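Before surveying the methods themselves, it helps to consider a single example record, giving the amino acid sequence and backbone structure tokens:
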Amino acid sequence: MSIQELEQTHTPGIYAKRDLAIVRGKDATVWDDQGRAYIDCTANQGVNTLGYSNDAVAKAIAEQAQTLINCSEIFYNDKRALFMDALYTILPSPMKRIFLCSSGTEANEAALKFARLSTGRTNVVAAVRAFHGRTFGSLSATYEPHYRDPFKPLVPGFSHVPYNNLAAMREALNEQTAAIIVEPVQGEGGVHPATVEYMQGLRAIADETGALLILDEVQTGFGRTGKWFALEHFGIVPDLLTLGKAIGGGVPMAAVAIHDTVKNLAPGVHGTTFGGNPLASAAALASLSEMKRLDVPRLAAEKGHYFKERLEEINSPLIREVRGMGLMLGADLKVKTAPILKALQAEGVLALPAGVSVLRFLPPAVITQEQIDTVIEKVSRVLANQK
């Protein structure tokens, strides 16, 4: 029985699986069970910024697994403390408190709860095309009806207004608004970057109304956009910053960085069993050290600029626009991405959709220029062969 057949026997049917079994990875290359290599421009939805099988991260995981895997936050722990302090050094300076959890949606759930607790208000305003996760609170902030509709009624008090539209946001806020939640670059929603005016305006509106500003940097954080955090492109500091994906070097890990403006956090108001466990903390500590050693923000800025320029050079009538920041790029097409993705896979390139018609590239920061050139060659060929 093949890997696909065995897994298909037990899968719940909630994933649109590609007919590909990945069994090994190194840097920006993965291999299937037949030994065929692929250039990976998915990075596991942005997780593997350092690529696959980073030696330092793997060593840290192995050593910690033989020392102490789990330790609840009712006790102090050396690896957790060291990681939190290391993370603090790259966060905006007012953000000293850190809540650790296991996934991006958990981080957004926590931030939404903290905002309600801090303000005593209930309403949350998010953006059209937003994606913040799939659990009930984060799903309520997510926009796409395909994700939301089967699970209604969702958490009350959530509304959505057009992205990059300050007037619409200002009109949506009232005395019951606890928080504004936005992505600095909408990922799942089509790779749409915010404008500087929009982000700075959101900060001002939140200050004026007493609402808290939550920035969802689950996908954009840790160098993905060419800065440690995308907020640095805009010159603002949020009240709550949600982080995930790349934070753990491939091990499940997420966090909420908390500004002093957030009040009323006390023992018992929130918690998690696995958040900040020593294994994940050791992986995250090693991952952050490697990101600093390699200067991942610089790599993402330089390689992202090159990648974007090469995408823009593709002479295809099927491309409407190329947009993004750093190594978070999207090619908006005039056709559906599904057949494009399948054809690219056959050519040895793995990419992602972002909605129906946007081809999304989230490669590891360790992707080489030669690999980028190969990706461009394959994309050009695939688009030229479309009927």
